Amino acid sequence: MNELTAKRNAVTELMRISPLADELAARFAAAGHRLYLVGGSVRDALLGRLSADLDFTTDARPEQILKIVRGWADGVWEAGIAFGTVGVTKRGSTLEITTFRADVYDRVSRNPEVTFGDSIEGDLKRRDFTVNAMAIDLSTKQFVDPHDGLDALRRKVLDTPATPEESFADDPLRMLRAARFVAQLGFEPAPRVVTAMTEMAGEIERITAERVQTELSKLLLGRFPRRGLELMVDTGLADHVLPEVPGMRLAIDEHHQHKDVYQHSLTVLEQAIALERRDDPDAEPDLVLRLAALLHDIGKPATRKFEAGGGVSFHHHEVVGAKMARKRLRALKYPKQIIEDVGQLVFLHLRFHGYGKGEWTDSAVRRYVTDAGELLPRLHKLVRADCTTRNKRKAAALQRTYDELEERIARIQAEEDLAKVRPDLDGNEIMKILGLPPGPMVGKAWKHLKELRLDRGPLDHDEAVAELRRWAEENGL
After folding, report:
1. Is the dihedral of CA 354, 355, 356, 361 positive or negative?
2. 265 with 245: CB under 8 angstroms?
3. HEC profile for the chain?
4. pLDDT tens-digit profile of 389-426?
5. Largest Cα–Cα distance in the chain?
6. Where, if anywhere, are coiled coils annotated (predicted)?
């Protein structure tokens, strides 16, 4: 794609939303100001994937922006006005309009001293990457590209407008953003970017956990997360953000000795992604599944044991790994539900390997289902993705066995409604039969009956009452 074709494609894509952009530009022009489509919006227009969320920049100051958009916008918010940004909604689109910036960073914290600039060229120079440092003058539809972002986009190269050292010293989060854009766009970082990331990786510790988590999640939800993760590990950035991942390079997987646990985990991640849309072609990327796939074996280095005869074991690595996963995700300030779901998937991912060739009883199948709960569909995908052997016969056998397990689960669910497993007697009946007041003993009796339900399936009423009385006698009631 030559430069002229690229520009023509971008303008064609821009025209798709031009009524909105042109309306806004006309209002700014009437007030004596210029308006530019900028940054990721221009990049995405060039890639033919422009969204309804658009970024603009202007020479108008924030208070002037507010005057221009009031009466035109469907909604206005001022949460970012201290940083020069006014948010607007119009006909289902979200627009962010930011005054030209010429920030100065103290290079101790990440927070800039916000200063406003007077030129589009000055604004573009302070942006993170050249592919995000392009603009379109909406009054003339002319490109502004002082840092050859269009050429970088065509070559799929990620580079910085200033030197990477200057850029990353200003805002170390840009190193993680580099890995994120590699994962989202499939670009290659310029050699000087990789060098700077390697030399400055420790600077990421200046960034808050919440902001790191946001970038990491976007990376994992990208089309090529393996590439982004490999860049993080190769540059040492992961040592400060997600150290358990490079830590897996120390262990050799006992089942797949042709690759280390790190490489195995990246392959499991890719295979889990391939399974995301198995049941739903329109499914969105699944952050919980992807985190669990990446972290499912992080307990192996801590549990590695060299056995007599040359073997290697990792006993209880799923237990250790679940604790490690929860600890890391808490440190990254992930929501509680994500932490618990990922930890539970890591804890359960190995259980299927006790299934053998179908030796599990119906009781064991029930427990597998009830322990997974709502995570069962994700657990199915994780377990299937965890097979990375190159032995096609072995891989096919494992998949067939799991097919059989899923069929058994479906049969038992149809017969017993496993999603709603409850004891055959409820709390009120337990209290009435045993003459108990509400309290801990009722809960213990309920739990005992639930265990029986899991072991033996549904009991008829008389049998359940007999079992309850037997338990009560054994417990001195």
Report:
1. positive
2. yes
3. CCHHHHHHHHHHHHHHCHHHHHHHHHHHHHCCCCEEEECHHHHHHHCCCCCCEEEEEECCCHHHHHHHHCCCCCEEECCCHHHCEEEEEECCEEEEEEECECCEECCCCCCEECCECCCHHHHHHCCCCHHHCCEEECCCCEEECCCCHHHHHHHCEECCCCCHHHHHHHCCHHHHHHHHHHHHHCCEECHHHHHHHHHHHHHHHHCCHHHHHHHHHHHHCCCCHHHHHHHHHHHCCHHHHCCHHHHHHHCECCCCCCCEHHHHHHHHHHHHHHHHCCCCCCCCCCHHHHHHHHHCCCCHHHHCEECCCCCEECCCHHHHHHHHHHHHHHHCCCCHHHHHHHHHHHHHCCHHHHCCCCCCCHHHHHHHHHHHHHHHHHHHHHHHHCCCCCCHHHHHHHHHHHHHHHHHHHHHHHHHCHHHCCCCCCHHHHHHHHCCCCCHHHHHHHHHHHHHHHHHCCCCHHHHHHHHHHHHHHCCC
4. 888 888 888 889 899 999 988 888 777 665 555 665 67
5. 89
6. 388-422
Indicate whether 108 pLDDT > 90. no
142: β partners: 137
Given a contact cutoff of 8 angstroms between Cβ atoms, the answer to whether 14 and 50 are in contact is yes
- Write the CA distances from 113 to 41, 109, 324, integer angstroms: 25, 11, 38
Q: pLDDT tens for residues 350-365?
A: 888 877 766 788 888 8
CA–CA dist 397, 109 (Å, integer): 54
**pTM beyond 0.90, yes or no:** no
Contact 464, 423 (CB under 8 A): yes
Query: Is the dihedral angle over the CA atoms 246, 249, 254, 259 positive or is it negative?
Result: positive
> Rounded to the nearest 10 degrees, how much is the dihedral formed by the CA atoms of 402, 403, 407, 410?
70
Residues 135 and 120 sit within 8 Å (Cβ to Cβ): yes
pLDDT, tens digit, 9 for 90 and up, residues 416-457: 665 555 665 677 787 877 777 887 887 788 777 777 777 777
| Tokens (6 digits) for 95 | 């627009």
User: How many residues can be counted in the chain?
Assistant: 477
Instruction: Please list, in sequence order, all residues whose beta carbon lies within 8 angstroms of the beta carbon of residue 208, skipping any fewer than 6 positions away.
Output: 110
Q: Are 13 and 48 in contact (CB under 8 A)?
A: yes
Q: Are strands 93-99 and 53-58 parallel, antiparallel or unpaired?
A: parallel
290 vs 154, 223, 316, CA distance in Å?
30, 12, 22
